[in-house]
Amino acid sequence: DSRKSKDVLDLLEAENVHLNVMLRQLGPLREQLYDEFLSRVKETDQSPPYAWGPYEYYARTEEGKGYAIHCRKSRAGASEGGEEVLLDENALAVGRAFCDVHEVEPSPDHSRLAYSVDFVGYETYELRVLDLSTGELLPDRITGADGSLAWHSDGNALFYVTLDHTHRPYKVWMHRLGTSQAEDVCLFCETDDEYWMGIDTSRSGRFLWIETAAKDTSEWRFLDMEAYP
Questions:
Q1: HEC profile of 133-176
Q2: CA angle, corner 153, sides to 152 and 158, nearest 5?
Q3: Residue 24: phi, psi to the nearest 5?
Q4: pTM
Q5: Is 29 exposed, middle or buried (0-12, 13-18, 19+ CB in 10 A)?
Q6: Cα 6 from chain centre
Q7: DSSP letters of the chain?
Q8: How far is CA 99 from CA 118, 169, 185, 197, 214, in A?
Q9: What is the tens place of the pLDDT at every residue in 37-71?
Q10: Sequence-separated (6 or more) residues with CB below 8 Å from residue 88
Q11: At residue 51, what are phi and psi to the nearest 5 degrees?
Q12: pLDDT tens digit sequence for 116-138
């Protein structure tokens, strides 16, 4: 976040102080309501697993922890345990005032994990890639993204979307692993500022879908990834 105006920041800080003073008598009520809401939440829970290739993927939560844990099990031994933790959002959030993981996507060959994370709260995400065989992050870092991502069918490239000056998703890019973001290729740009953009892949994994949509209309384009190396 590059917003550094001292006058604006001083005003916001003063407003926050004023708010805390005016509402301080509601502190016990806030704690009571929080405890009541929390008592109705199943803190230790798990999403339904989805089968993909040789694995079942799922996310789970644990009591007392505020973030999800992304895991998988081998389908051959899914009933016998053998859980593999792919990404623990709680570990990412340690020491940070804010943490939001937007998407978590395994690569088509299941050897890597791509995810998007925002540590500021401005809904501008950084894309990272984890080598699942070593647990180490690849040097690839993609900044200024809207959080959505998709893998190329060959598993060696990512598609992502960037934002314009109004925070509107408007450009689709392709990033080859092992290259810099400056070398990424822009595949599509939506110049009409009434349209927002999203990406997805087909169930077969062969096609990239690009959706642009306004309030009352939408358009879909597709890219055959096998014909676009």
A1: CCCEEEEEEEEEEEEEEEECCCCCEEEEEEECCCCCEEEEEEEE
A2: 15
A3: -65, -30
A4: 0.87
A5: exposed
A6: 31
A7: -----HHHHHHHHHHHHHHHHHTGGGHHHHHHHHHHHHHTS--SEEPPPEEETTEEEEEEE-TT--S-EEEEEEGGGGGG---EEEEEHHHHHTT-S--EEEEEEE-TTSSEEEEEEESSSSS-EEEEEEETTTTEEEEEEEEEEEEEEEE-TTSSEEEEEEE-TTS-EEEEEEEETTS-GGGPEEEEE---TT-EEEEEE-TTS-EEEEEEE-SS-EEEEEEEGGG--
A8: 6, 21, 29, 24, 29
A9: 988 989 999 999 999 999 999 999 999 999 999 99
A10: 67, 69, 70
A11: -85, 130
A12: 999 999 999 999 999 999 999 99
Q: How far is CA 66 from CA 6, 69, 192, 210, in A?
A: 33, 10, 39, 33
Give residue for tokens 């550094």.
4
Best CA proximity match to 218, nearest among 226, 210, 227 = 210
* Residue 4 identity: K
Amino acid in the structure at residue 198: G
| CA dihedral sign, ordered 193, 196, 197, 203 | negative
The conformational region for residue 121 under phi > 0 = left, psi -120 to 50 = alpha, else beta, is left
Q: Nearest Cα to 2, choosing from 209, 210, 205, 144?
A: 144
Rounded CA-CA distance 150/159 in Å is: 5
